[in-house]
Amino acid sequence: METTYPIITIDLILDRFTTKDVLHGVLHSILFHRLFGTIKPTTFEVLDVTMPGVSDPEMEQLVNEKVDAFWRGIEGGSKRGQILVTFSEKKPKKSSWFAVYMGEEDVPWEQWIINAELRQQKSDQERQTLHTSLASTLTKTIHTILTHTSSERGRAAVPLITNAAGISPFPIHISVKAGDVEIG
Asked: How far apart are CA 174 and CA 111, in angstroms?
């Protein structure tokens, strides 16, 4: 099935020492740029890169749960995983040829795919090289998020906001995969 909504991919190579902080920062950065309610901004320092975030107990809990699920998945043996962040809107379900209300369904309007690979370093020099590379990748990731969300295509993807309650008028679904198995 062909998607009509934007899919933005972020590729990360991580080590055991930075995995949770990096994923936490990237998820918060995406949410910061895609939550349309009144939010309390915050920042996170990850490898000397300042990343925007959202200071909200519900979002903090959601991000922490997903990062922890990812961590458990890679601790279980898989060294690669994905976190998918999908923004949707509620629309009436398509009914058959007669007009009968069939309820609502979530229809995606944008998806972010974070591909993460865990690598083990054998020396402090290798670790330092990876951290330098990862800091550069995080800077590029923030640039990608900013470029997409402020682009014509990124702005056009956002549906009409008809409900201004809460910090997100749209359903957010975050799923976690380790290897090819969905774990959270």
From this structure: 10
